[in-house]
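Escalation from tier 1.

The customer reports that the assembly of three entities below gives different structure tokens on two consecutive runs. Tier 1 could not reproduce it. I'm attaching the input and our single run for tier 2 to review.
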Amino acid sequence: MAKVLMKGCEAVAEAAVRAGCRFFAGYPITPQNEIPEYMSSRMPEVDGVFVQGESEVASINMVYGASAAGVRSMTSSSGPGISLKSEGISYLSSTKLPALIVNVSRGGPGLGSIQPAQSDYYQMTKALGHGGFRLMCFAPATLQEAVDLVYHSFDYAERDRNPVIVLLDGCLGAIMEQVELPEMVEPDTKRTKAWNMSRYADEPRKGKGLSPVYPEFVLEKENMARGQLLKSWEENDVQVEELFLDDAEYVIVAYGISARVAKEAMLKLREEGFKVGMIRPITLLPFPKKSLRNLDYNRVKGIIDVELAIPAQMHDDIALEVMERAPIYEYGRSGGMLFNDEEAYDAIKKIITGGAQ
Amino acid sequence: MAKVYSRPQSLLPVPSGFCPGCLHSMAIKLVGEVVDELGQLDNTMHIVPVGCSTLNLLYWKGDNLGSAHGRAPAVATGFKRVCPERLVFAYQGDGDLASIGLAEIIAAANRGENFTVIFANNSTYGMTGGQMAPTTLVGQKATTCKMGRDPQTTGFPMKMCELISTLDAPAFVARYALNNPKNINEARKGIKKAFEYQMAGKGFTFIELLINCPTNWGMSPLQTLDFMESNTIPYFKPGVYKDKEAEV
Amino acid sequence: MKKSTVFSGSGGQGIMSAGIMLAQAASEVGKSVTYLPEYGPEQRGGSAKCTVIINDEEIISPLIKKCDNLICMNEQSYKKFCGQLKEGGLLILNSNRVTSEVERTDVKVISLAVDDIAVELGNTKVANIIMLGALAGATGIITPDELAESIKRKFASKKQAIVDLNLKALEKGLEAAKAVL
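Tier 1 run:
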């Protein structure tokens, strides 16, 4: 299929539609407005439903209602709005309802800034809401990768009966790049899925209930299952790009837009003879622990964590695997300030030539 | 001998877990009777809120979907939009609907979502132990206003029917008291009308039911009925606040 | 060859749409493209900037420190971004609005009174298209025909007169660039 030039937010929305998403509810917030705008006209074309919720709180709960009816459902927002959606996300996980949540992240905390940032790492991977649940979190670095990850996200969500996060930074939301769009998946109009509360399924549904409240002995079992799920993600679902790890003396760890800028710097440094490699997590949860754990620390002299977050957040996940076998350096900007190819090159070179701590 | 009364088929044959004398039992029973009468049990989806009315989960025989505190109208919106053929009702208490869920109820009403909200108003937060509710009457005591509700600092009780009936979209908005058999019969008719409107696709319908809370009001069930007659009903006046059909 | 172009000016000057047209044109002929906009929170009148990178191979970083071509539609953007132009790069200025003298001697400069030219053509909105024409004429990162196709697609839903006006603006830009170089 021919490649088309698309804006990030619109490409993500179209990928979701092609994955069979037929319900979208959202609320305006920069820099993700093009997703609800696109969906408002696209959903009616495919017999889907678009609702502009009165708030992020309402929007995520609308997704909850639609997902309970067996329809692939989605919402999107940015940091401040994701905070408001936290309640609903916890309920989705509690009732084991699949959904896609896209975060096009911006500078924080608070209202922060509308410029791109990666400061929602903790929120996305550790604490999306109360009660100790976790969601798979995908962090694409190119639009093509974003399209492909969004396209498959519903499969993961339905397999695990758990919502899925796709985390874009504001750069990827706004950028235009060429993408190859996947084939349209026909939605499950019979809504045969197990959680289906609608009456279309063959099995009679009378008296079926779905509730976010559990007797404590059941809840504990549910949480044990969540623990098993987390383990199985780590075993089976890690996605990571590894570059030059067979000779690297310094290993950059970066995701999303940071990884692209850092990769440009890495290639330039390698041309100059510096043995630099890269680990780019594509899944932030499950985090590619083994990539970091199994590095040859007799050779690796340092890990360089590159993020658009100060203080660095992914640092903690890296440190757990490095286990003090090599120093971890940090480079990044924050609050909506970005770094470019040459700045990243200078900073990384300074680290590997011993000029920085 | 003719059987003149039986448990609605829409409720499970289990004893009520509501406190003795609590009119929540009456409210959900009325809904069940109407659903029976309309033959809609298989087609009904009950959106369950947070509060004492969460207990409906244990009695409602048809489909039910639990929701977060105050968010039932948003959940109902999502469900009904993708299953427009279902008869959907959210059953919400006063803390759920008139405090934490105020945005959701007003916005759903304003969009004219084609489902029914049953609003059980007992002027208190029952399940959490009797704190002041948005509908607690002026001077009425609660665990967070031990000297009685003071409008100087806590404002006045929220009149939801009056608020919602100012909107253009809602099709039917009415308030009933469940304090005596006559009023209960009126309420049953109102619930039926709301459901019929929904089934005809006429839009948002809202039924407020004034009920009691013997436990947290600190009264015997009979005393609560007297209290309703002399205090609750004069403030929250029963009646039809909006009926789109009647306007035509 | 990787070539980067920064379009800068204020909101309402067609900065973003010029960038998108260039990106579209390059994409249509099979080049790799990234278009990255940057703007303030204002809906109108704030600063506007976008970066278009065109390459034969995959583009790795869309965030770059230095660009090959810089288009400045007003004084503020000239002052802010002039330093980001590579040595030997091309600077295209709207001389109706950029009042400073160009101090850099290590870059090629095309100074065009695009606002005046646009007024002569009958519509101030085509100033950005004149700039695009000048860029194509001076750099060859895109051919005039490829740009013309992109313009036709963009204005496909508009009246023929609008398409013709924009094509004329493109032509004017090309001529102006040739005259200067």
